[in-house]
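Let us begin with a simple case.
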Amino acid sequence: MATRKLRLEELGEERLSPRDKGIPERAFGMTVTEFLATRPRLPEFWTPLVALDQSAIDNNVDVMSRWCSSRGLQLMPHGKTTMAPQLWQRQLDADSTGITLATMGQVRTARSFGLDSIMLANAVVDGRSLRYLAGELADPQFRFVCWADSVATIAAMEHGLRSVELPRPVDVCVELGAEGGRTGARSVAEALEVARLAAASDVLRLAGVGGYEGSLGHDRSEETLANVRRYLRQQLELHQALGGLYDDGDIFVTAGGSAYFDVVAEVYADAVAADPHTRWTLRSGAYITHDDGFYRRISPLDEGRPAGQAGAGQTGAGRLLPAMRGMARVVSHPEPGLSLLDGGKRDFPFDEGLPIPRRQAPDLQGPWTPLAGSSIPAMNDQHSYLVHSGRDLGLGSVVSLGLSHPCTTFDKWHYLPMTASQDSDLVVELVRTFF
């Protein structure tokens, strides 16, 4: 099992400074622990700002843990979503069996905090990363598995690993892709060829089948869902074909972004019931904060999705809640019905939908009132264009924003204040990111 407690103590000893975006001036020179002991309030922070909601995060972690457990699925959530070890710890505490990462640089960061169960949803082909990995595998508690999608990948790994002292073979899942998708062998036959080479290698160990169905669509149309199901059935076909090549060690079959994990559970269901020894593993990551945009529209567990559209077997699972929000201040009224906010692309995500105006207040302390009849049709680096009806918002007033796509929210912030709930302004934690 993964380390239950990461080494997070040093995060509390970091000193806050003017280099930390949004942090109140009175915090400069304090450690994070010292600052939090003063019970800071959100109105002290500077705009633009992104804040997290602890109650919603706790709900989401619990909902996803129970959802996976009830379906015989393990969860290794994608840590690149947040790159926040404090949030990884919440996921590990809720029975995640490890953390998925995307680059060897992220693996190195995670290892520095003591994480000892990692899936790299990517290949490792360069000599420097392979040398580092060989050194880390000297730790007998460290479980690591990566992916390979071609004969060339296997050759590159073997070349790099044979030039170093390797304590044990590197576990490798064969990645199956799909036409028009991302990485991955483009057919079961190609994947079988990769698997045979991995199984025959003296420096690699065949450890299962991996893949990512999320690149096959951005909606829940019947056509998209049919494509996802077809791809997942091919994964199962590949896994069955590899049966004679596996040894007695851990074997993974893994899929699952944050959009179609219900379809993964549906397609895997019979195989999970028939083969409890395989580690049937989801890697969904964005669920921890959910959002007000892309994932709200597509997730099978969104709180607003009608019961009949919630995907297969959702009854009683609970629902995901948006757990992040932006805040930006009105700095200009250049013309009637248009306000410019002091936060833009450098502060808020924009790749899967622009921020959604939700509420307004004279300042960060409220009182907050709904902001109806408004939208943000465009953003610059440091400005958002707020188009609204009715009277102009007061210069200096604050707008609370629903955000879309956690994966491009966290990477813009060194620290994100977390309040006890969206209705509380008490900051209970500063969540540190490592991008």
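The second case is a distinct protein. As before, the sequence precedes its structure tokens.
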Amino acid sequence: MKRSFLTATAAIGTLGLVLSACSPSTGGAEKTTDPSSEQSTSSESTTVTFRLWDDAAAPAYEESFKQFTAQHPDIKVEVEVVPWGDYWTQLPLDISSGEMADIFWVNSSNFALYADNGNLMNITEELGSDHEEWQQSVVDLYTRNDALWGIPQIWDSIALFYNKDLVDAAGVDVTKLTWGDNDTLLPALQKLTMDANGNTADSADFDANNIATYGMNAQADMQAIYLPFLAEAGGKFQNEDGSFDFASAEGVKAFTYITDLINKYHVAPSAAETNTNGDLAREMFIRGEMALFQSGPYSLKTIADNTDINWGIAPLIAGPEGAISTSHGVVAVGNEATQHREATLEVLKWLGTTEGQAPLGQMGVSFPGAVGAQDYFVNYWAEQGVDVSVFIDSAAGKTALSPFGPDVNAGTEAFIPRLLDVFLGSVPVEQGLKEARDAGNAAMNL
């Protein structure tokens, strides 16, 4: 919700190259309830632990669990936040040592490994199909071997944040931006990119070494940038067997276009900066130094709480195959090794209800996974003067398949270094993509 997508390794950690749906915030690991307070309660009560990686969502869960405990006074829920940079390193250690929380968040890049290893409760077997309606795209994403392995919690899609004043001054219609054969995006970005002397990027006097305002973000951001562009070019990230396939002719077309925005036309910030600071583009948008920022609802609160610019949200940029968003989600999973199985199942049931997820929407955290709670999120932002329906439309349209498979995280970590070189322009696109693909597939033994 606060930051761009990150992964656990240092090379990947600042870029957001593995999908997480809700992006991480920067707080340190903490338990948001005081364990000592529980000791004063009845010795008959059971404590269920709940772990997540985002401190922006923690208050919503605290509120939800207050309501849960009011209805189930014999069960207390303790929330702990482990920041994203440590989350995926700590998870396997805690599972192997028996110290893992009873319930915890996972994303699509990581759940299959733990499901296959028998670490997660089988939701289909434990809770059946008699529950409230959940976001189908998230259900599909976390269904493996004909079973659902988590309770949908939040979901997101991609749209285009824009600076109304900059766009109006340049005469750009953000609802009609396309790339490819009918390219209206590049000319628009050239009008929107301006150097310190007031020259736009389509001017002969433009100084690419002294840029004051960039057109848009074009960094190595999987969810917001290159998965949509890849799909819009007709390409795919993975084959049915899980092997990477982004080095296709369509992939070369998409990545060439993206990296040309950076290295050839200078309408997007240098990869030398964004490769090491995945939040840079959003920070620039907040400061009014970037006209367009393609991202998801996880950026809403950070932008709304930190900027004075006049901004809005438009549909994501379309390509040769139309506008194709990524649609992702986060689930709460049950620890198969929990010592409090019945209590844990009661909490999981609660986490799948409209009542249980209402605070996520009411506090503007993200679109809840329980369909009945989603209006809370829409209404929260409507009261702030922001129409978030564009994200709903984006998710309802054509979407790109999110990364999948038990080894996709290892494969992604293997291909990232070479992909970063592609964005830097230090290796030809076609060569770099093939080398990245091969490294990723080798890491997955595919």
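DSSP finds 20 helices and 16 strands in the chain. The chain has two domains: 46-156+328-396, 159-324+406-444.
Keep these points in mind for the review questions at the end of the chapter.
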